[in-house]
Every structure is written in C-alpha cells, then in structure tokens.
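Encode chain A's predicted structure.
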Amino acid sequence: MKFLLNFLETPLETILKENDGTVHPPATDKQLQHLMEHLPPILRQKRFLEQDYQTKPNYIQKFDLKSRSTDGYLEMIHHSSGSSGKPTFWQRGLLDEVQIASLFERIFKGFGSMDKTTLAVVCFPMGSWVGGLFTTCCLRLLSQKQYKLTTVTPGNNFDAIHACVQNLDFFDQIVFLGYPPFVKMYIDKHSVKAKFVLAGEVFSEEWRQLLMDKSGCAQDDIISIYGTSDAGVLGAETSLSIEIRRFLAKKPELAKELFQLERLPSLMQYDPLSRYFEVHPDQTLVFTTMPLGQECPKAPLVRYCIGDRGSILSVQDLLKKLKEHGFESKHFVNLPFVWVFGRAHWTISLFGANVYVENIMVGLEQPQVHDLVTGKFVLDKTEDRLLIRVECSQNTPQTLETSQMVAQSILEQLLRLNSEFANYVPASQQLPQVVLYPYGDSQYFRQGVKHQYIQ
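Encoded structure for chain A:
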C-alpha cells in the first residue's frame, strides 16, 4: 500500500509536479510503457492493440469482470444501467480511489477545507451505483490527509438531506455533491449558503449565476467535474477554467472559433498522468487509465471511448489564444484542458442518469400505444424533466389524452429498464413531457431523410 502512504504524506503540489501543462508531459511515456507491460491477458491480444479505441460494446460487454482484471481479484464492484436494462458492472480498487481523491483534493483545497471545518453532503444516489459510494470513498481518504472534512451520505433524498443540513449546522461551511438540477431543486426550496461539486450534466453560465444568487456563493464555489461510470472522475473545473468559460459565454463567436460548435462545452483541467486523453479523428475523446507510480490499475482501460465529443489543449496554447482577445487572469493551474460537449451518441443525461434512445423506443412499442404513433421521436430535456417529441400515426388526433397515455407508457418502460433513471431522478420529475406532432412534421419528422433521435 505504498501508493496510499505516498498520497497521505505528499503535498498536492508534489503529486502534480511532473505536469508541465501539456497534454503529453515527458513522464507519460514511461508510465504508458509500464502500463503496457501489465495489461490483462485479454488486452494483450493483437486485435485490441491494433484497434483505434475500445468501447463498452467491443470490450466491456464481451468480456467478464475477471477477464478484464490483471489478476482476477475483484476488490469492489459498482454498476451502471445499460441501454437494454441489463446493468454493466465495473471493478474498482483502492488505487482508483487514491487517484481520484487527488482530484477532489484540488477542489477542497480551493474551498479552504484545510482550515475551515467542512461538511460534505453526498447527494448522489447511494447503493451499488458508481456516483455516491465512489465519491464517499474518495472523500474519506481526503479526510485522512489533514483536511477538516466530514462526510455525510443522505443520497438523493430531499428529506434526508434537509435533516442533515438542519441538524449538522456547526460546520464552517457546507458542500453539496450531486447532479445539477437535483441540487438546484433543493436550493430553490431551502435557502442554504453552500458550495457545490456537480457532475453528470453540462450547465450554462447563466445557470451557474442563478445558483450563485440563490446560495450566496462565488463562481469558484461551484465546481463541475467530468465523471463517468467507466473510470470515475476524469477532470474538473478550476478557478482558471471557470473564468475562461464565463469570458467565452459573453463571446459566442470566439467560443465557436475555439470549440468548432455553436455550443459552450464544459471546460475542465485534468492530470494526464492519471487519466491520459487523446482525440480520435471523429472528434470523440478517448482516455487511458494510468498507473500510479509502479502500481497499475486492476482493470485498466486503454484508449477507451465513451462517446463524448470534445478535445484537449495545453494550458499554454489556450491562454495564448485567449490573450489575443483580451483575456487575462490572476489564476494559473499548470494542467491541460479538456472540453466536453457530451455524448456523441444516443444518450441524454438527466439528474446524472443516462437515458437511452432505446429505452424510449420500447415505451412506444407497447400494445396500448404502438398504433397511435409511428415510433419516431426526438429525445430532449428541460431543466428537470425529459422532453419527448413524438410523431403520431396518420389518423391519430393530437390530444391531451393521447400524450398522457404515451408519457405513461414511456415512464413504465424507463422504470423497468433503467435503474439509474428509477433511482437518480426524483419521482416527481420522472413522468416525461410528451409533445405530439402530426405525421411528417416538417421540423422534426421530415419524410425521405434519415431520422435523428437526438437533434
């Protein structure tokens, strides 16, 4: 357990000292070589070494947990929901927790938790899902490193959260960790001065400002992290990245020039010696889970793709580009940037739950509704609810009764197939908003072209 002692005894600055702000610092070559020498037997096969990247279908779903492990020993198991309703299981070990604890250390050091007593309220769903338990394990490690950090785990239960807040009111500060719309729903109802660590969804700077106004916190007190069931946390916002994103939110043309889309992505900084990123030619991110010293991950992922569209850039290059447009900052974090637009494929994230196009398809295929609709739809969301635009069959009237029937059918299948949706999304927000459109609607359901389920 040398790596654990090193984490507990080593200052954060020393842990990060081998980073030079680039996407490929010199130390990564040695680490990558060490990782290649300690892969599970299945990953040493030529067909994997020659693939552009690995994915859940071509690797995770084809091989069991033991095959994906370096030694067959499974230390801890989490799971996430799959598109068919069959869960995916992930192995986690102490090494994973230590690596991600370093990322949380960057956040809580910024919150002043070495000096201020801090109550961390974990509002992610608890149980065998990745978010709540994995976060808790990482925070527990951090509390052993001279941080005045106390963790409480009410999960995504509003009453339990409020009981914690009301009865544990003797801390210098409180930090909520959860999914953006869920946390905001709580803050809208209860005015609490707090700080936030948020995951699972991209939010706008206007949304950040609303939360700042409601909770009385500063912009640096709302930190978004880039997390995934597959590999824990990959990156996080910093004071510098937040300042840049707020600058670009007011300059959409510059944002489009930098990011190549008319959308403002999440902008994070990451440690390439922990999670090494590359960009595939189709503009999706691929990452490799790196060793920690001589200790390799028990279930490594190599050039693994979760379908997130985005890119990477050194801190020096991005700051140089921004300086040409008048950006200056007193902040500096010597780590590269990763920006993320979200899943490039058929997925919408709501309260941190991945909702798949296939889940909706099943809902529209049920006997009570399948004659009323064509099966084509567009999956979207409002701030706190799924929004599904559905094409009616040619003779189906667009009535309130029909939309309610379709919504109920979709909900029943979501609850059956998707355990994340059932457990992450508050019951009051689970019924989707269904909007019916006439057959062949020119805006969403044009005839003769390939239909896009997420537009």
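The mean pLDDT is 91.
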